[in-house]
Design brief:
Number of strands: 11
Shape: globular
Structural class: alpha/beta
CATH architecture: Alpha-Beta Complex
Length: about 280
């Protein structure tokens, strides 16, 4: 009996040079838990006309990411996709361009035009895998525009079904048929939105598969149970304070969040930093 090949998992991040260390940590976490081959894409853009810090991810970062991913599967590969011209033509000068969130989050709306794959897992840079990503990839989304998890805080203010856009499993075939992202681009261009892309997905998405919180855990995390931990902003009520701890803040991750199973991931990151010195010149 011929053994069936393992299906390749396609993963996408959007961002600039500033968040590359977070994306690298996230990629290493994918490799730790996922044995299937992974194609990883960083969609980036040079948007220094908006902010001098909005520098596109350097193409050489693909080599570092590929090396990290191949610790999980030798057939994994990473690619940097420069969407500067695409962004400027579709969204340049939009009314939402200077919202609370950087315009890199809007690059999600442009993904169908990049010919990456018919379906893709989109991850925010501040996410980490805690178990096999294939658990998400193997979910059938053929009848849905996308799959997502409810927003931990937002569901209390905007309704129980309000989703968080930090982890999205996108079906570009259905998105194309519904015109969801085309409509989203028009809204982002012509109306100032507080949560631009997330607002679009919640307001105009019609066929959404809402997933268990383990696929976008916005609070605690358990190795082997949580699939994706999202290091997003949170609130502690007693005593009241807002926190926003990222996975790169190692001491706070251990002491404040009680997550202690990323030590081997940090060690691989340090090895890659020593080899490539990609943090040189960072503030």
């Amino acid at each position: 009996m011929t053994e069936q090949p393992v299906e390749r998992i396609h993963v996408c991040y959007c961002g600039n040079e500033k968040v590359f260390p977070l994306i690298l940590l996230s990629a290493i976490s994918i490799a730790k838990y996922t044995t299937a081959p992974v194609s990883l894409y960083i969609v980036t853009a040079n948007l220094t006309r908006i902010n001098p810090k909005f520098i596109a991810v350097d193409a050489s970062r693909a080599q570092i990411l590929t090396e990290a991913l191949q610790k999980g599967n030798p057939d994994s590969v990473a690619k940097i996709v420069d969407a500067t011209d695409l962004y400027e033509n579709a969204l340049g000068g939009s009314k939402s361009e200077k919202s609370k969130y950087t315009p890199y989050s809007y690059l999600r709306m442009l993904l169908p035009t990049l010919d990456l794959n018919e379906k893709i897992i989109y991850l925010d840079s501040d996410t980490m895998c805690c178990s096999d990503l294939a658990q998400l990839w193997d979910i059938d989304i053929s009848q849905y525009e996308f799959a997502a998890v409810r927003d931990h805080m937002g569901q209390h203010f905007f309704g129980r079904d309000y989703i968080n856009s930090g982890v999205l499993y996108l079906n570009f075939d259905m998105i194309g048929k519904s015109g969801l992202f085309d409509r989203g681009i028009e809204k982002i261009k012509n109306k100032r939105l507080f949560f631009p892309d997330q607002t679009v997905l919640n307001k105009y998405g019609k066929r959404i598969l809402r997933l268990p919180r383990k696929f976008n855990e916005q609070r605690g995390a358990r190795e082997g149970e949580t699939v994706i931990k999202h290091f997003c902003q949170g609130i502690k009520w007693v005593p009241f304070h807002v926190y926003n701890i990222k996975q790169s803040e190692r001491r706070k991750v251990r002491e404040n969040l009680g997550i202690d199973f990323f030590e081997d991931i940090y060690a691989i990151y340090d090895e890659l930093q020593a080899k490539y010195n990609f943090e040189k010149g960072r503030e």
